[in-house]
Fold:
Amino acid sequence: MWLVRELWEFMRVRKKFWLAPILILLVVFGALLVLAKGSAVAPFIYTIF
Structure:
C-alpha cells in the first residue's frame, strides 16, 4: 500500500498525472495474465502479447 501512496505523491507533487492511465493499464494487464494463467482462454490472451 505504501507504494501506491508514494506513486500518488510523486504524481501530485511533480504534476505527472499522465502516468496514472499507464500505471492502471499495466496493473489491469498484469492481473489479466495472472488470473487467466490456468484457464482455457490463456492461449488466446498470450497470443495478444
Observations:
- The mean pLDDT is 82.
- The chain has three helices and no strands.
